[in-house]
From TrEMBL:
Residues 19-50 are annotated as: Disordered. Keywords: Membrane, TPR repeat, Transmembrane, Transmembrane helix. Pfam families: TPR_19. This is Uncharacterized protein. Signal peptide: none annotated. TPR repeats lie at residues 79-112. It comes from Actinokineospora spheciospongiae. InterPro entries: TPR-like_helical_dom_sf, TPR_rpt. The chain crosses the membrane at residues 224-245, 251-268.
Length: 295
């Protein structure tokens, strides 16, 4: 599922508040048919229905938004009407329907930013946030627009959640080195994007702390490991000392080799990274059938 309601609606800030969708890739951007005079936006029901649908969506009135976007789409062929329909479906957890609407918008206007952002969040909702983040980086990674940077940061945050496994009690946990690497890269990228979202910044900082803690080495079980280390060092030193006192170079070498081998085996057996101590299952991919709440 999506991280927050903002991931559905934030992209609409890319359009001017009064935009009715009458000037980009829609039927109402063309001249009148059969010599008729062009219709103004105030006379055309499409832009009016679109504006009402957008207002309803941003207010969380999904039924009203669905009706108005549907009305607009029925009077013209404009990509943002279908983006609106996709957003309603996505907010309700109807990911497949959302994808159909976003792809329809892209057929009408290839490269439309709202449609691309909507499609990326549908991928997040279906549990493929890592791929969505990579696609957004390719499309908008160099952009300075704060809305686009927000989507990049939020999608990386979702990728970090989805790539990890879960413990028996449902807590997120690392299960392999790749997860640590992905989460570390995601956290650094979120902080680099410098978005005006304190929640995202705190999440990135917390994620970095978890990665560092997960890579920290510990002795387990500590008491047995320390005792064996003392015995290994003592045995090696004893053999070296006996060999030195008896003038036996082979015994000295045997003491050094024995101590080194025992130390290596003890380190391999008892010294491990913290993340390995938490039993986890699989990767925590998001469910595709869940709606989201408003933040």
């Amino acid at each position: 599922m999506l991280r927050t309601w903002q991931d559905v609606i934030a992209k609409w800030r890319l359009l001017p508040d009064g935009d009715g969708g009458s000037g980009a890739g829609g039927a109402d951007s063309a001249d009148g048919v059969d010599g008729d005079a062009p219709r103004s936006a105030t006379d055309d029901p499409g832009p009016q229905a679109f504006r009402r649908g957008r207002s309803a969506l941003l207010s969380g009135r999904l039924d009203d938004a669905l009706a108005e976007f549907g009305r607009a789409a029925g009077t013209r062929a404009h990509p943002h009407d279908h983006v609106g329909l996709g957003d309603v479906a996505l907010a309700r957890g109807q990911v497949r329907s959302a994808v159909v609407s976003y792809r329809t918008a892209l057929e009408l206007a290839p490269g439309d930013r709202l449609a691309l952002l909507g499609l990326s969040q549908a991928r997040v909702a279906s549990g493929d946030a890592e791929a969505a983040a990579a696609e957004l980086e390719q499309a908008f990674g160099a952009e300075a627009d704060p809305v686009l940077r927000y989507y990049l940061a939020s999608t990386w945050c979702s990728a970090a959640d989805q790539v990890r496994g879960r413990t028996g009690d449902g807590a997120l946990a690392f299960t392999d080195e790749r997860q640590l690497a992905v989460c570390e890269d995601a956290a650094h990228r979120i902080l680099e994007l410098d978005v005006a979202d304190e929640e995202l910044r705190r999440a990135a900082q917390r994620l970095l702390s978890e990665v560092r803690a997960g890579r920290r080495y510990r002795w387990r079980p500590e008491g047995i490991a320390v005792s064996l280390l003392v015995l290994a060092v003592s045995l090696g030193l004893t053999l070296v000392a006996i060999g030195g006192l008896s003038g036996s170079p082979p015994l000295v070498v045997a003491g050094i080799v024995t101590g080194s081998v025992l130390l290596y085996l003890i380190v391999v057996r008892f010294r491990r990274q913290t993340w390995r101590e938490k039993p986890a299952r699989g990767a925590g991919r998001g469910a595709s059938g869940s709606g989201i709440g408003h933040r």
